[in-house]
Please model this.
Amino acid sequence: MNTKRKKKTNENANYSHSIENNNNNSDLTEHDIQMLNYFQNEFLYRHTHYWSIAIKLFITTVVITILPLTTSVFGIELSNITDKKLILCFPVLGLITALISFLILRNEAQRINAVNRAKYRINKECLPSKYQYIYYEEKDPKKWQTFVISNCILIAELLIIACSALFIWRLY
Model:
């Protein structure tokens, strides 16, 4: 057990030493390259995962919301359903799904931001200046792009839900 602890301490010492050396534009260590590669792959995975979830949840919300409007395709007329509450439960379920999807997408956007910050920090601290990203600001407006997209998806879902609920309400 002590051997593992000593080995880990030596690795940490070597890593911090490599950071100091890399700030002086010396060669990269294998560990630095692996960490940067890891965070780049993690960023790509998170980004792909975000869009996969966004598309699936948007389609789910829209289908749940407009399901009563497609009943004539299945041979059921809305005017034959006497209880309006049964029909209006679909837009309510759509609203709940939209809010849950918004929370999920906001959390994913925060994870993307965290991975991106780590990637740029490693780039700034470990890479020689000729390999560093040219432009990176902590308050870059592009960083909030995923948060804005989450808000836009929620607004679109809420508009679809409102239109569907109004249309169903006016059918009676």
Observations:
- The chain has one domain: 2-22+30-171.
- The longest helix spans residues 84-126.
- The chain has a mean pLDDT of 74.
- The two ends are 74 Å apart (CA to CA).
